[in-house]
Specification:
Layout lengths: L1 E6 L12 E7 L4 E6 L12 H8 L7 E8 L6 E8 L12 E4 L12 E11 L8 E8 L11 H10 L6 E11 L32 H14 L3 E6 L5 E10 L2 H20 L2 E3 L14 E6 L1 H4 L4 H13 L1 H7 L6 H6 L14 E3 L6 E3 L1 H6 L4 E3 L8 H13 L2 H5 L1
Parallel strand pairs: 1-2, 4-8, 14-15
Antiparallel strand pairs: 2-3, 4-5, 6-7, 7-8, 9-11, 9-12, 9-13, 10-11, 13-16, 15-16
Catalytic activity: L-glutamate + NH4(+) + ATP = L-glutamine + ADP + phosphate + H(+)
Pfam family, one: Gln-synt_N
EC number: 6.3.1.2
């Protein structure tokens, strides 16, 4: 379908899916036409969802579908497969171990490909509904040693050591919506939207792209039991953020990974892609991070600022170590993002300040006034492994070097 709209002045035009918009620019001497195309959607998203729902509404005869979820060999992507149990599991202990072909997930050789899935946390399934479950799993090799991409096991050991500190985390997951053609969702096909400014927490069709995704993801997380605590549109158009927490210890990584899984599944239904690339667009556009808020029992109590300052001082001494684990490529991804511009610190320097979003560590203004609370580490990239990040922070802030070597 083609729509021609005469206008006196050139302006951006956004259009619904499947409309090809022709913008006429009238001057005193000529008429020109420019086309603006929407980002492409996957073909499967166009399948009849009413027909699908007819089958999803069928009774299950007392059986339960359990979808096993795990992190593959990239350290970034998630995989999942489903099996039937005879009854609804009441706890994680009721879910049996399983296995998968690691040679097809970058985790094993074909000659010895079977790997173990060890269930560690259970959630309700928002796609097929009760009594069905989603189960996050650790991955073990054929000899039951930890897979290289399994950072949960070592993270859990550290969290057990610092258990007395009741360390809380809250992670702010930024992401960018793309069409299947790799172009940001709703951006003009041969150009750019207007400059950053109106998009952060923005409303209106000209400022907020893809809010349906955000609303559905939020509801899916709440249904599943993920500790999602908020969401907002971000600075770059087509970029959004959701927050998970507060979560104590190992719970943080579990809940964020499942929230990511739900995001990708929701986007799949709508035919678009969620990217966690830390710098999705080069140029004068904000990157995507996973800011991590940290609080211990002592930090939350009266006079807690001294413990916040101690933690920040220890983090500063190990800045380069943290940068290496704050993205899956040893800091290479964050080099594109942590430039000192676009609300980031420089990757080469460590800094901290009250209410400064250009610092490595931000102390919220209210915390500065109350002299207790939490701090925000703004260095982790959007595609970080939350197990690696929380492990590094807990180890640096709360363990002595002797304890770390045990």
């Amino acid at each position: 379908m083609v729509i021609c709209t005469p206008v006196k002045y050139h302006k951006q035009v956004w259009a619904p899916h499947k409309l090809r918009v022709v913008l006429l620019v009238l001057t005193d001497t000529e008429v020109t036409c420019n086309t603006v195309n929407m980002a492409s959607l996957s073909l499967s998203s166009g399948l009849n969802k009413s027909v699908r729902q007819q089958y999803l509404n069928l009774p299950q005869g007392g059986k339960c579908q359990v979808t096993y979820i795990w992190i593959d060999g990239t350290g970034e992507d998630l995989r999942g497969k489903t099996r039937t149990l005879d009854s609804e599991p009441e706890s994680i202990e009721d879910i049996p171990e399983w296995n998968f072909d690691g040679s097809s997930t970058y985790q094993a050789d074909g000659a010895n490909s079977d790997m173990y899935l060890i269930p560690v946390r259970m959630f309700r399934d928002p796609f097929t509904l009760d009594p069905n479950k989603l189960v996050l799993c650790e991955v073990l090799k054929h000899d039951r040693s930890t897979a290289e991409s399994n950072h949960r096991a070592s993270c859990n050991k550290v969290m057990e050591k610092v258990k007395e500190h009741c360390i809380w985390f809250g992670m702010e997951q930024e992401y960018t919506l793309y069409g299947t053609d790799g172009h940001p969702f709703s951006w003009p096909a041969r150009g750019f939207p207007g400059p950053q400014g109106p998009y952060y927490c923005g409303v209106g069709a000209n400022n907020a792209y893809g809010r349906d995704i955000v609303l559905c993801h939020y509801k899916a997380c709440l249904y599943a039991g993920v500790k999602i605590c908020g969401t907002n549109a971000e600075v770059m158009p087509s970029q959004w953020e959701f927050q998970v927490g507060p979560c104590e210890g190992i719970e943080m990584g579990d809940h964020l990974w499942v929230a990511r899984y739900l995001l990708h599944r929701v986007c799949e239904d709508f035919g678009i892609v969620a990217s966690l690339d830390p710098k999705p667009m080069t140029g004068n556009w904000n990157g995507a991070g996973c800011h991590t808020n940290v609080s211990t029992k002592q930090m939350r109590e009266e006079g807690g600022m001294q413990y916040i300052e101690q933690a920040i001082e220890r983090l500063g001494r190990r800045h380069s170590e943290h940068i290496r684990v704050y993205d899956p490529r040893g800091g290479q991804d964050n080099m594109r993002r942590l430039t000192g511009l676009h609300e980031t610190s420089s990757i080469n320097d460590f800094s901290s300040a009250v209410a400064n979003r250009g610092a490595s560590i931000r102390i919220p203004r209210q915390v500065g006034q109350d002299q207790r609370g939490y701090f925000e580490d703004r260095r982790p990239a959007a595609n970080c492994d939350p197990y690696a990040v929380t492990k590094a922070i807990a180890r640096t802030c709360l363990l002595d070097s002797e304890e770390e070597e045990e």
